Each structure stands twice: as C-alpha cells, then as structure tokens.
Amino acid sequence: MKETRIIGLLIRDRIKEAGKLQLTLSKYAYLIKSRLGFHELSENTCSRMGFIILHLSGKAEEWQAFETEISEIGGVEMQKMSFEL
Fold first, then answer.
1. Which InterPro entries match (predicted)?
2. Checking phi first, is residue 20 left (phi over 0); if not, alpha (psi -120 to 50) or beta?
3. Which residues pair with 73 in a beta bridge?
4. In this predicted structure, what is the pLDDT of residue 43?
5. With the C-alpha atoms ordered 68, 70, 73, 79, is the resulting torsion angle positive or negative?
C-alpha cells in the first residue's frame, strides 16, 4: 500500500528561525511535492509567526530523517498526517 504525508509547521519567530528552517527545507527539497506558506496578519502587515504546509513524496524512511532534522530546530512545531492510498 502506498502512503502520502502532509506536514504542518508552526514557526514561532520567522526572523529568528527562518534561516535554519530554509536550509533544512532546501536539503530535503527532493521530498517536497507541494509547499504552502503564510504569515500575513493583514493585507499590509506580516507576522513574526508563520505556517508552512508540506506535501511530501518519497519513502517513509526519508520522511523520518527530514522530520528528525525539523524537530531539532528550536521554535518550530510540527504536526503530521499520513494517508494510506
């Protein structure tokens, strides 16, 4: 059976954590099928807090390595959903 994974990330302080997070996302870019990010408070104002939703491809073993590195970044909270297809 095939599995797909959706990951939600809450970045508590984008200014502080964005660099580390972006390096990890770039390292594992081959796993990221879709990425959606948002951080606007209003039309003219950006929040220091942000959210990223990722749709992953690849294998569960690869996802685990990616998720481990994400979990080691301070100020980033991760939630996961898995679907068997």
1. Acetolactate_synth/TF_NikR_C, ACT-like_dom_sf
2. alpha
3. none
4. 72
5. negative
Determine the Cα–Cα distance for residues 32 and 70; give it in Å rounded to an integer. Answer: 13
What values do phi and psi take at 40, rounded to 5? -80, 135
Contact in structure between 38 and 14 (CB atoms under 8 Å): no
The CA distance from 24 to 31, in Å, is 11
Q: Please, are residues 52 and 37 in contact by the beta-carbon 8 Å criterion?
A: yes
Q: Other CB atoms closer than 10 Å to residue 21's CB: what's the count?
A: 19
Domains along the sequence of the chain with CATH: 3-84 (3.30.70.1150)
Residue-wise pLDDT for 32-70, tens only, equals 999 999 877 767 777 788 899 999 998 889 999 999 999
Six token digits for residue 78: 């991760």
Amino acid making up residue 60: A
